[in-house]
Amino acid sequence: MRNARRIDQLWLFGGLALVIVFVLGGWFMVIKPQHTARDTVNSDIADTEVQLATERKKLAELKADQKKVASYKAALVSAQKALPYGTTTNKIPEFLKQLQTLGATYQVEVSGYGASAPQVSETVPTVTELPMTLNVEGKVENITRFLKHLQTVQPRAVLIENARLATGDAGWDLSLSLTAFITSTETMTVGS
């Protein structure tokens, strides 16, 4: 009987040991890899949600920028007029016509145009400077309005380097030394 009891105990402990081995084996071979896979998927989901939020923000910014395209194009056109792309004429004939029209608007006479050879800018290598001289005749008030318009309103970028005012036959004579600019970098034309 003792032997039978011992055999029963062996079977009981052997069965328990086998159950424990199966549970541990099942845990390490089946359940733990599933938990690891689940954690990896949850981590990937969290990363994707963060990335999605970032991309949605970028999309919202792009949509906001898209609404501003017309103003960006207008700014580009304005910049292209201020700093035209260099050609064989450097856009000087057009600029002189603008100055003469501007002079007529302010009742001054624009004449005595002279230009030096274009020079590459020392500060911006893609920009060429066009040194010019110009004579403006008229009343001081009109010349002042002409100069203000020349520096702040008219589309072509110019820098007045030197100005000399003297009395003349029809009022005052203003001799200007100025620099106009052109660029050697062509940009896309979006309209006038």
TrEMBL record:
| Gene Ontology process terms (BP) | type IV pilus assembly; type IV pilus-dependent motility
Q: Which Gene3D superfamilies match?
A: 3.30.70.60
What sections of the protein cross the membrane?
12-30
**Database matches in InterPro entries:** PilO, Transl_elong_EF1B/ribsomal_bS6
Q: Which UniProt keywords apply?
A: Membrane, Transmembrane, Transmembrane helix
Does this UniProt record's set of keywords contain Cell cycle? Answer: no
Domain of life from the UniProt record = Bacteria
Pfam families reported in the protein's UniProt record: PilO (PF04350)
Coiled-coil positions are none
Return the protein name.
Pilus assembly protein PilO
What high-level taxonomic lineage is stated for the organism? Bacteria, Bacillati, Actinomycetota, Actinomycetes, Micromonosporales
